[in-house]
């Protein structure tokens, strides 16, 4: 049986942003059999009720603390594996088998959390906070010209590292030599464009890769090609990009990363493509390739003595998006810290800090090789 761990998320060190939805599972993984997930140190039992709605409960049973994720769904309610108490999706206890005729004490309520199921992903938030928007949409998800596959896994390292790593275009020829292959490309990076809401930005990067054969075939190309990548980043957990590879071939990716704990990250990565949609086995190959790429990234974070150095990082133009993400995350956390000591949280401005983009924006883009 899995261990049952339930902690105050604020104490976990995983720094969840209040009120924000975090991705915890692919829709297809959530059925009438509960699954275990951890978000910010909080153990969750996630299941689908009789109406097909996804429900997320604190995995620690309020009775004696058994793991509800090891239970089973009966008549739409989640039955604990220890004494069989049953909990509806809103956490209310609907049955105590040892005393079917007695009233159920009010304290028997399990904790439940807000869930959004959207475009194939299940999102959960542990706390409510005014003004926090729903998870961002992925435009190509409903476009019939695109075919999708997804992978999901739990990886070592902080969620912030994985988010930054996915924006980091210049590591590809070094870290992914075995999967992508190819030569060292120069990167042409436009300055990032900040959103109005201090929680999102867009960035554009162009790069000419000379990929190896394996990567070219996966991307439906025979020869070298250029990529024109437009990122849209929404803190804390979403990077969505459209990659124009020329010749009408376009790819979209949604990289989602949520902190299971301070040093553990759940990654859900969806890939849409408008090429090779007819080819049997292309999804399986794409999945294998994508897992290999993430495994290569994993080796970097596992070997990094300090995977998340903070303010004074040297940065080039290619690092602009990474720097901007780090800035937004620092600002969000600083606001939380300020609000936690203030009785009037809305009146607290974000603390001033040097703008890291000031160091990269003035650099002239390097010319294409
Ligand atoms: S521990 Fe869950 S019913 Fe007793
Ligand atoms: Fe990578």
Blueprint of the fold:
Layout: E1 22-26, E2 35-39, E3 42-48, E4 54-58, E5 72-74, E6 77-79, E7 86-87, E8 93-95, E9 112-118, E10 121-125, E11 147-156, H1 159-167, H2 172-175, E12 187-189, E13 193-194, E14 200-209, H3 213-218, E15 225-234, E16 238-244, E17 250-261, E18 264-273, H4 282-303, H5 320-340, H6 357-361
Helix pairs in contact: 1-5
The structure holds FE2/S2 (inorganic) cluster and fe (ii) ion (FE2).
Short overview:
With 369 residues, the chain is α+β, with helices and mostly antiparallel strands. It has two domains: 9-101 and 109-125, Rieske Iron-sulfur Protein, CATH 2.102.10.10; 144-303, Naphthalene 1,2-dioxygenase Alpha Subunit, Chain A, domain 1.
Q: Could you please describe the fold and organization of this structure?
A:
Helices cover 18% and strands 30% of the residues. It is α+β, with helices and mostly antiparallel strands. Strands 11, 12, 13, 14, 15, 16, 17 and 18 form an eight-stranded antiparallel sheet that branches. Strands 1-10-9-4-3-2 form a six-stranded antiparallel sheet, with no helix packed on it. A hairpin with a 5-residue loop joins strand 13 and strand 14. The N and C termini lie far apart (56 Å). The site of FE2/S2 (inorganic) cluster has 8 residues, from loops.
Using brief descriptors, characterize the structure shown:
369 residues; alpha+beta; Rieske Iron-sulfur Protein; Naphthalene 1,2-dioxygenase Alpha Subunit, Chain A, domain 1; 2 domains; eight-stranded antiparallel sheet; 6 helices; 18 strands; 18% helix; globular; disordered C terminus; binds FE2/S2 (inorganic) cluster; binds fe (ii) ion
